[in-house]
Batch of 4 targets.
Target 1
Amino acid sequence: MINTYLNQVNLFISDNYQPLHITINLTNGQVQEFRIVSYKTHQPYAETTFHFNPKQYPDAEVIDMR
């Protein structure tokens, strides 16, 4: 398996703050793009759904946008 590492994530939003698409740039030069065609707001999610262990990623900036 080839190890690829995340280099950059970009979230593109419209003028009225709706998400349009996400691009993920990897350090090996590959780019993955996700187009958002629909989404639902105000969904009930348990706190455990978004569990993040900051010790595993000490340099990550965590922004909770719930």
Target 2
Amino acid sequence: MVSSAKPRLHVAVGVILQQQQVLLAKRHASKHQGDRWEFPGGKLEQGESVLSALGRELQEEIGITVTSAEPLMQLSHDYPEREVLLDIYLVTAFSGEPHGAEGQPLLWVPIQQLNTLALPDANQPIVTRLQQQFA
């Protein structure tokens, strides 16, 4: 029997919330789900905890240090070419000024306007939760 298992990625995601707005970063065109706006974060490394990965990824990607975060939700999404497990944290406090440390554009978006942007398919349940909880 041949296994056709797709890669499964475990990703720490930060929903950075300030004054009813969330921070989004634009994915590079060459990446999976490229040219879409996303909540920043990234893959966990071997043996790394979700909170450690979240802190590391947000420092690397957008130059902030997380000082307060709490679990928001966890979800799985099955793309045709890979599966993702997203551990989503609400980042309520951080130090540093967010900037596209990897050259990517950043955008503060009011929660009620999140549906107007193209986001990765896996992010839609996050938008729904934020709009139900904060809008």
Target 3
Amino acid sequence: MTTPSIQRPTTTAFFVQSAISFGLSLVALMVGILKLPVGAWERGFLGLGLIFVVSSAFTLAKCVRDRQEAEEVTNRVDKARIDKLLVEQDVFKPGQV
């Protein structure tokens, strides 16, 4: 007995909105760094900070997703074990309660 996978649909509109907002915020921050009245070293430092923040945000999102998927798999395995025990249990067999 297999359980169907749980699908969490993401609408196209939500995906497009997320991609556009990410792109706009990234571009706005880059323009802000370039327009700052500071030297090249300070701009470079802020640029590296921007790259680090974006990459760590993607890594955190991946870790959260992986943990959630692992919990779903564990829940499905536990459910399969319980289903197997219930199927193996013969309630009409004498001596079982």
Target 4
Amino acid sequence: MRLPARLLPAAALIPTAALLTGCFASPGSGQASADGEDGGKRIRVAMMLPPRSGLSPLSDDAFKLSRWSTAETLVTLDEDGDAEPALATEWKQSGKTWTFTIRDGVTFHDGTKLTAQSVVRSLTVAATASPKPRILDGVELTVKAEGDTVAVTTGTEDPLVPQRLSSPQLSILSAKAYKGKTVNPVGAGTGAFELTQVNGTASATLDRYDGYWGGKAKAPGIDVKFVPDGTARAAALRSGEADVVEAVPVSQAALIDQDLITEVPMPRTNTLYLNTEKGVFEDAGMRAAAREAIDAKTIVKGVYEGRADVAEGLLGPALPWAADLRDQKVQRAKADDPEGATITIGTFTDRAELPEVAQTLQQQLQKAGFKVKLDVREYANIESDALAGEFDAFILSRATVLDSGDPAAYFYSDFATDGSFNISQLADAVVDKALKKAADTKAGDARRRAIMEAEASVLATDAAVPMLHERVIQGDAAGVVDVAHDPRERELITVDTYRK
């Protein structure tokens, strides 16, 4: 219901443009100037989510530090998810232990030198934190220095240790970051930009670090504002107050010069999970009937205004190798006649599109012969019921690669008999065997093939019906050059980014 103007709070009556006035004003006295001495211009960034944990790298705030090129990890990932050198130049495995050679000549922003002991300190803090960074959930990890190398030992052989260490939550910071009760990254990173000031959940300032081991950044600094309101972020791009804008809402994208926006495929799939343990969808023929009833193209066109990709499988275009390795001949059950069977579909309101997706699915499944009830709540109030199998079906927007950049963990958590996020209540020996093979295979082409075999085994059960792969819409002003468009959301402003 639209409220009459007299009932709206005063702030709601102020035009969005007015709320943004001064949003990216030049820093005041004692702070970095708006432009660099060499004529380069500072980059103004409008980010969606404010810090939740004071920019601690042990939290999801770590991805902000990574996107600003201020905190770095031992390794990074290439487009395919393979590990590449960063603060470590090489590594080798011997059983449960991986040995990493630490890059020479790297200094932290406070002037201290990166050493093997520095790495041990950062990784040990992460490994012993409570809660642990999620990339280490269930992983027993110990670290020790051996000369200019660091030995990382896990409780069981783990082929993904280098990929795990690429997680921004395992960034390496100087000793000063660990002096207080919480980890403070200000002035403690190794990246191209030094984090110099954080103003709570409002803003952050970074200046170019001229001693960066990877070469001098082209931009003199970054000025960040946290702008949770999507309409306000879009307005900042249109008005020229922001140079780079995160997550432009679909509803605002059409109002912006299309040359200023880029749709970045996300490793996130909107999926209908079907309860295989009890109820209507315990029967494979009924699951097949639901699959055949779904018209994902209509959902993409109607709900997402065409700014998403129809799913061919559980893994989408954010993983460029998936399509080439996908088995197009998955054997599935034949569809039965629903004959008026009643089902309840659950989903949540936290992602604005999902309730609308649920309504569209309701219509499609009813047309196919099902009777459909919807149960839509906030995620915090519905997750436990979903995991307990209280719904016949559940709509979820699910990240398909976790912090290691590898989908095997997602497949295991969602579809293994003992998976921690098994909403479909799936217990299938063929699937379990395929998942174990994928998890145990060494990183590289062989592992990717095993992962796609696991995907095929899941799709054959119809325990999950992938509908679409989401995109994030990023806004870049006309004068900004070489902004990163990263599906994993680890890069944004890099050493090569600058503003004309």
